[in-house]
Amino acid sequence: MKTQKIHTHTIGESGLTLIEMLMAVSILVIIGGSAYFAFKTAVDAYHQTQARVLAAQRCRFAMDRIVTDLGNIQVSTQELELALYAQDGPSQSGDRDMISFVTLARTDPDPFAAQLSSFQSPNISQVPQPLLSDVQRVAYFVAAEPMPGQSAPGSGNFQDDFTEDATEEEGRTSALFRITTTTLDPETVISPILETGTIPETDENGDPIYVDIATLITGLTNFDLQYFDAETEIWNTSWEDPESVPNAIQILISVQSEIEGSVSTNTTTQFPTQNQPVLPSNSMTQSTMVHIRASGTAGASTAGAP
What we know:
The protein has helices at residues 18-71, 111-120, 164-170, 190-195; strands spanning 73-74, 85-87, 98-104, 135-144, 174-181, 211-229, 234-236, 248-256, 283-291.
């Protein structure tokens, strides 16, 4: 009787030891952490760049409007209605200057066409309408940023919006506003708004007054104006000489970026002054200079002009 031998083969089980498992997990954690850090850095850089671009666009929009108005300025030292008014508003948190002058404002639709169509309309209202014209007095000033849902300070009394202390207490940022009115006399519209915070509805004759207040830019940290006198070759913080007109006006606007803590300062030109306000690190600054045309100074002498 033959005995059959049965051969058995032992199959070994393959796997990772505890040390190998720990090493693999550590490598995965290092690779994942590096990828997340690189991704987060790229995303943060994208958001900061986007915030800088948006802040630059906001500055450029306000700057273009001011430059356009100054390019069409109509100023005279002999007529009160065509006078240039300027106020310097320095503060530690940023300048809050004001300027007012007469300019040729672009209107859309054309005011004369709108008046003509209203006169020819059979359903014309008997309520007197304010005078429309492209010759308007404009004023740029800084006040508290409007509350959510408001495009500009309310039509009532907003004198508190001009107070810097009240703005800081309420935690509201500042904004740059533009007033336009067909009433050229600054004592009728501009002065009541800046001094008492009230918007007049009628003039001394009882006629309605056209007044429009628009918010040019929000998140404003600095609005500084400088006036160049060619005769003395000095940049002035304000223009107080009623018998002459500055040769050039330099504008500096700083806005706060929407991302807190992002360093996005971009100053194109600094004024030749020593006492500069301390601006937030996350602010964008732009500046430009506008030369006052001789054709816009009817009946006025430009400072330093022969």
